UniProtKB/TrEMBL annotation:
Residues 1-185 form the Ketosynthase family 3 (KS3) domain. InterPro entries: Ac_transferase_dom_sf, Acyl_transferase_dom, Acyl_Trfase/lysoPLipase, Ketoacyl_synth_C, Malonyl_transacylase_ACP-bd, PKS_assoc, PKS_Beta-ketoAc_synthase_dom, PKS_NRPS_Biosynth_Enz. PANTHER family: FATTY ACID SYNTHASE, INACTIVE PHENOLPHTHIOCEROL SYNTHESIS POLYKETIDE SYNTHASE TYPE I PKS1-RELATED. PROSITE patterns: KS3_2 (PS52004). It comes from Streptomyces violaceusniger. GO terms for biological process: fatty acid biosynthetic process. This is Ketosynthase family 3 (KS3) domain-containing protein. It comes from the Bacteria.
């Protein structure tokens, strides 16, 4: 028997996680060349659908456990379907490995697919690909030169590569049903209850709740009394673990953050008295859904995300997957840039900072998901839309890496040094009046971040004149630290080059609603142009998310705040220490 449950539920319930179902798909080929005869195009479609569902490219799957009936009709058709899909994105030195458990004990009918899953789970666990028995050489009925696929005629080591081991399992029913499931190595185990009693490496949260403010204050008083009665213990990690895992959750909530008993005593005292404290956050529980908001450039700083790479295996694994995806399009190492390694390029370069921010945001989203925080919608602002599209499933990780890397390289090569951007603390209508004398060819609105937060872009000299005029009127205006004019007419210089560079991008149907801050939809090559005449606007997308019952959660690397009410959203802080 196989037990399948959400990863977050399995972790919360203390169940061992043997592998993770990354994606799956089913279809039916009965209307093709006969109910009982296999159909190659249908098998190719189910493979591509499963890859799309898993948000993976074919090159990111290491081995396929074939249905493998051993017939002269079925095996060549299945092999050709694998060659036409997986075989096209693998290489001769890193082929797709192919085997079938039916060579061990035959066809188990309705249990055949389960047998394949069990075989691949154990292969992932032991890091070894078993030999397929009774096969000495490839079938002559298959054109093996059509793609990079190799039969497992010998036991093969399956080493760690910096990303999870992944396997796909095919199972085809006698009535024409095709099923394809992709499983992957489980993330490293998070600390157990016993581990939680060890000294904390940093700040810890204590979570309290009550049915009313009075009940919440009373709970704080009881916890204070308990601490006073037991001066030698319990340790803060023990209390935090118990509060988070063994208590009912009510509408009135408070989170206390501290590193030692003194911190928590101060916060508990403030909560009991109804006072504010730096270590205390209070609020009401809501039944709203969660939306992830991905900000644009400007939130980076040296050393960002290093703490999370060291503390979170889930975050670190996704960072390494992003590094592998970006490596095809860049000549620098993502991990070396984040860690500030000697010789690594600076975050001052647009062709470095944008891919790095993309990787951090995608990895933060993966961390949130591993903790059970799953988005009901995603919103991206400016270049943050690339990360949002990846998390929504609109772009595979490889396609998203292509977009963010090649797009930022084109910006740096063609636009760098020719423009700039300025943030102005005025409503957009007022800003448009102020910049009118320069004309849209010299200054234009680039982004509307809130009711009184607008970014303009344009020529450096014109922006200098605008800043001087704003300062004379005591209007806050500051330069954004970039040397190009994004979301301006200058971007037209990139159009033809980017359309050619991004032509291989293959958009997919979104698994999570994807709210654009430019067009409201779209994901083809022209959709990833840095916007020309269309400024980005966070407020409408945030409002669409909230009107759908969502509260927004920032997946950027700094705190991002929008104004309250219909024109704004809310956000959080992810400064590399944890979500």
């Amino acid at each position: 028997m196989l037990l399948v449950e959400r990863l977050s539920d399995a972790r919360r319930n203390g169940h061992p996680v043997l592998a993770v179902v990354r994606g799956s798909a089913i279809n039916q080929d009965g209307a093709s060349n006969g109910l009982t005869a296999p159909n190659g195009p249908s098998q190719q479609r189910v493979i591509r659908q499963a890859l799309a569902n898993a948000r993976l490219s074919a090159s990111e799957v290491d081995v396929v456990e074939a249905h493998g009936t051993g017939t002269t009709l079925g095996d060549p058709i299945e092999a050709q379907a694998l060659l036409a899909t997986y075989g096209q994105e693998h290489t001769d030195d890193q082929p797709l490995w192919l085997g079938s458990v039916k060579s061990n004990f035959g066809h188990t009918q309705a249990a055949a697919g389960v047998a394949g899953i069990i075989k691949m789970v154990k292969a992932i666990e032991h890091g070894v690909l078993p030999r397929t028995l009774h096969v000495d050489e490839p079938s002559p009925h298959v054109d093996w030169t059509a793609g990079a696929v190799s039969l497992l005629t010998e036991q093969t080591e399956w080493p760690e590569t910096g990303r999870p081991r992944r396997a796909a399992v095919s199972s085809f029913g006698i009535s024409g049903t095709n099923a394809h499931t992709i499983i992957e190595q489980a993330p490293a185990e998070r600390p157990t209850a016993a581990d939680a009693t060890a000294p904390a490496p940093g700040p810890l949260p204590w979570i309290l709740s009550g049915k009313s403010e009075t009940a919440l204050s009373a709970q704080a008083e009881r916890l204070l009394a308990h601490l006073d009665a037991h001066p030698g213990g319990p340790r803060p990690a023990d209390v935090g673990y118990s509060l988070a895992t063994t208590r009912a959750v009510h509408d009135q909530r408070a989170v206390l953050v501290g590193t030692d008993r003194e911190d928590f005593t101060r916060a508990l005292t403030a909560l009991a008295r109804g006072e504010a404290a730096a270590q205390l956050v209070q609020g009401n529980g809501t039944a709203g859904k969660t939306a992830f908001v991905f900000p644009g450039q400007g939130s980076q700083w040296a050393g960002m995300a290093v703490g999370l790479m060291d503390a979170s295996p889930v975050f670190a694994a996704r960072i390494h997957e992003c590094a592998a995806a970006l490596a095809e399009f860049t000549d620098w190492s993502l991990v070396e840039v984040l860690r500030g390694a000697e010789g690594a390029p600076s975050l001052d370069r647009v062709d470095v900072v944008q891919p790095v921010l993309f990787a951090v945001m995608v990895s933060l989203a993966e961390l949130w998901r591993s903790l059970g925080v799953v988005p009901a919608a995603v919103v991206g602002h400016s270049q943050g839309e690339i990360a949002a599209a990846c998390v929504a499933g609109v772009l595979s990780l490889k396609d998203a890496a292509r977009v963010v890397a090649l797009r930022s390289q084109a910006i740096g090569r063609v636009l760098a040094g020719k423009g700039g951007m300025v943030s102005v603390a005025l409503p957009v209508a007022v800003v448009r009046e102020r910049i009118a004398p320069w004309g849209e060819e010299r200054i234009s609105v680039a982004a509307v971040n809130g009711p009184s937060s607008v970014v303009v872009s344009g020529e450096p000299e014109a922006l200098d004149e605008l800043i001087a005029a704003c300062e004379a009127d005591e209007v806050r205006a500051r330069r954004v630290p970039v040397d190009y004019a994004s979301h301006s007419a200058q971007v037209e210089l990139l159009r033809e080059e980017l359309l050619e560079l991004l032509a291989p991008v293959e958009p997919r149907a979104a698994e999570v609603p994807f709210l654009s801050t430019v067009t409201g939809s779209g994901s083809r090559a022209r959709s990833w142009m840095p916007s020309t005449g269309s400024p980005t606007s966070v407020a409408p997308s945030s409002w669409r998310a909230r009107s759908g019952g969502c509260w927004t959660r920032a997946s950027g690397v700094h705190r991002v705040q929008c104004a309250p009410g219909a024109d704004g959203g809310c956000a959080g802080d992810c400064r590399g220490r944890g979500p």
